[in-house]
Structures are given as C-alpha cells and as structure tokens.
C-alpha cells in the first residue's frame, strides 16, 4: 500500500540544484544557476571564528533540545528589538534550518484529516511537510493582477474548523511580494476565527526594498514565527533556524525533536550568537543587502529589455524575480530545456502552485556577471523557440 511518503514529490528547488551538481560532475563546466535560493556570499569571518573558538574550547557535547540558553536569549532580544515580538527563551526552539522548524510544528499540531492552507504561489516544502503528517492541503491561488497578494475572500470560503494552520511567507518565495500589515493582520484574524494558527515564515525579513517588515506575532497570539540564519547571514550550510510559538506548540515540537535529531550542532550555535549580537555582523548584513539591491535592479532592467519575459510584479523582497514568459511550453519543460540546451538553471513556476504556471523563478543572489550571462543565454534560447 502506497503511503504518504511514497506519494511525496521531491523538492523542486533542490532537484534543480542537484541536477546542476550532477551535470558538473559529468564534466559540464559552463553551467550557470539562477535556480538555488542561496546567497553567493561566504559566511562572515567573525561568525566562522566564533564557531571555531567554541569548538576549540570544547563546545562539543549534547545541548538542550531547544538550543543553548545564550542563543535563545539572543533570539528573544532580536525579536523584541526588530520584530516587536515579546517572547521568553522557553518559547523559542532552535532547529536544523528553518525548514525543520516548519516540519516540527506541523508534526506537533497536525493529525490525519486536518487541513493546512497555503497561499499560492507558495514555497515548495510547505505542502510536503503537511502531506508527511497526513494533512490535506488547500491551496488558495492569487493573481499577478493583485501583486500576488493573498486573496482574503477565497481564503474565507475554504476556512472551517478542520483547518489547523494557515501558512504565509512575507517576503514571499517565489514572487518577491511583501504583504501589507493590514493583509497579514487579516490573515491572523481569519485564522483565529476558526481556531487555526498562522505560520509566518519570515526567513527573508532582511531582504526588503523600500518597505518595512511586519511580524504578525507582534500583535497576535495565534502565530508561529519561523526564521533562519541561512539567507540573512549567508549561513545556508550551517543548518540553523528557529521558531517562536505558543507553549502548546513548543511542547509538542520539543517532544518530537528529542526523539529525532536531539539538538542543533553544539558549536554552530555559538556562531549564531555572534551573528545576532555583533555589530560587525550587522555591518555585513547591510553590505549584502546593498548588493542584492543592485542585483535586483540589474535583473529587473534585463527582464524589461527582454522580448520574451514579462515582470508584471516587481519583487519588493527576498532575492527572486518571478517573470512570466512568451511560449506555449509548460514551465517544467521550459526549465528543463534551458538547463539541458543552454546550461542555465532556474525553477519552473508550477512548482509553487498551479496559478504560477507560465512563470519562472530567477534568483538574483548571484554575481552580476552570472546574471547578465544567464539572461543573454535565455534570450537566445527563446529566439530559437
């Protein structure tokens, strides 16, 4: 009998990255990628040195499942200062990346027959995490005509007391949309009306251009706030994330955590403390953000010049552009052919929901040279189509 894991599809974004690495191992040495959501920067040296020093002084033992207390205290200070979220260390769970926070929270709160609502276009792993736990996924599509903002009317129609979690990601992967305080507040209120939690994935909170980030956890109690060090501090390979949630959610997460990975790598947590508390790290973040801003402007300019791509929604956050394209090919076939024939990697829009068919996710967390060459190859590809 086929269970939920057998029927599960692999992550589309990681599948693209894995295919790129496979092709390189086979000797294809001119592949360029706009596919993976990973900063091109290395982790700042001060963060690496903090982890090295922790390793050398013997921070190599088991640690509390929720994370070392100094890190959870630093997260609480960060949340209060930057997000206006008041939390205590016992509400914080440090996890092996933000993705594991999502998985733990879903596993703690969902039973077979429960429902999870996704606001499309939505990041690929939310659906998988729900399916693993036997939950039904309800996808609420949005439109580029409204800037891919959540459709509150459609959401209200699908809500009932079997919906346990509504997931929102602002800034949004893949669209780059940043949702207003009013929209996020409405989402929290709609969820609360039906006894549901709103999971607010804020991993791209620093990648915002010309707007202020708003955390619904600052005003509402039914919020699971998820974040990570991966995007903000170029620490993707460190696998460090965290969440702050209501006590009953944290209790369930910790039970599952204690029987799985037990805790995050000990000495890596001290690198995370340095990231949150050091003025040097804050300066590094600003420098990275300026590069992202410049890359964003470059990619928008190149898409605007294209005869075959249309950017109806300019990204206001994250580090992705999400253009539609002029071709009858489906986005999976198009992305596959771009990789095979032009050695340019991107992610097909349909991976993020049916409403995103006919779009491509292009990451500008790459060098300007890579962006320019990729866009030139894509333009040549479309002309030959």
Automatic annotation (TrEMBL):
Full protein name: Aspartate aminotransferase
InterPro entries per the UniProt record, alphabetical: Aminotransferase_I/II_large, AspAT/PAT-like, PyrdxlP-dep_Trfase, PyrdxlP-dep_Trfase_major, PyrdxlP-dep_Trfase_small
MF-aspect GO terms: pyridoxal phosphate binding; transaminase activity
SUPFAM superfamilies: PLP-dependent transferases
Top-level lineage group: Bacteria
Cofactors demanded by this protein: pyridoxal 5'-phosphate
Family the entry assigns: Belongs to the class-I pyridoxal-phosphate-dependent aminotransferase family.
Aminotransferase class I/classII large domain segment(s): 30-375
Keyword line: Aminotransferase, Pyridoxal phosphate, Transferase
Entry's Gene Ontology BP terms: amino acid metabolic process
Pfam families named in the record: Aminotran_1_2
């Amino acid at each position: 009998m086929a269970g939920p894991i057998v029927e599960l599809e692999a992550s589309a974004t990681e599948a693209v990255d894995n295919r790129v690495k496979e092709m390189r191992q086979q000797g294809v040495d001119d592949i360029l990628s706009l596919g993976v959501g990973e900063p091109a920067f290395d982790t700042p040296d001060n963060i690496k040195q903090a982890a090295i020093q922790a390793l050398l002084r013997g921070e190599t033992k088991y640690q509390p499942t929720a994370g070392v207390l100094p890190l959870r205290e630093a997260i609480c200070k960060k949340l209060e200062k930057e997000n206006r979220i008041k939390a205590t260390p016992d509400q914080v769970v440090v996890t092996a990346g933000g993705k594991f926070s999502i998985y733990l929270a879903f596993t703690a709160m969902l039973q077979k027959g429960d429902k999870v609502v996704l606001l499309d276009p939505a990041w690929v792993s939310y659906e998988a995490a729900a399916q693993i736990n036997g939950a039904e996924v309800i996808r609420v599509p949005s439109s580029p005509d409204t800037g891919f903002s959540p459709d509150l009317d459609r959401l209200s129609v699908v809500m009932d007391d079997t919906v346990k979690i509504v997931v929102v990601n602002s800034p949004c992967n893949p669209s780059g949309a940043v949702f207003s305080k009013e929209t996020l507040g409405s989402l929290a209120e709609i969820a609360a009306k039906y006894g549901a939690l709103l999971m607010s994935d804020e991993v791209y909170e620093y990648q915002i251009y010309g707007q202020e980030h708003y955390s619904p956890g600052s005003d509402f109690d039914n919020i699971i706030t998820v974040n990570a060090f991966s995007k903000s501090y170029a620490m993707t390979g460190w696998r460090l994330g965290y969440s702050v949630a209501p006590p009953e959610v944290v209790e369930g997460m910790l039970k599952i955590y204690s029987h799985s990975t037990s805790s995050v790598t000990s000495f890596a947590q001290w690198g995370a403390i340095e990231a949150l508390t050091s003025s040097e790290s804050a300066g590094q973040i600003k420098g990275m953000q300026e590069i992202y801003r410049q890359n964003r402007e470059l990619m928008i300019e190149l898409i605007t010049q294209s005869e075959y791509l249309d950017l109806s929604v300019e990204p206001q956050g994250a580090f992705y552009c999400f253009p539609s394209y002029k071709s009858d090919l489906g986005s999976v076939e198009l992305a596959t052919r771009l990789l095979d024939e032009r050695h340019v990697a991107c992610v097909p829009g349909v991976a993020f929901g049916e409403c995103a068919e006919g779009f491509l996710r292009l990451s500008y967390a790459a060098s300007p040279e890579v962006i320019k060459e990729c866009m030139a190859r894509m333009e040549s590809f479309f002309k030959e189509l």
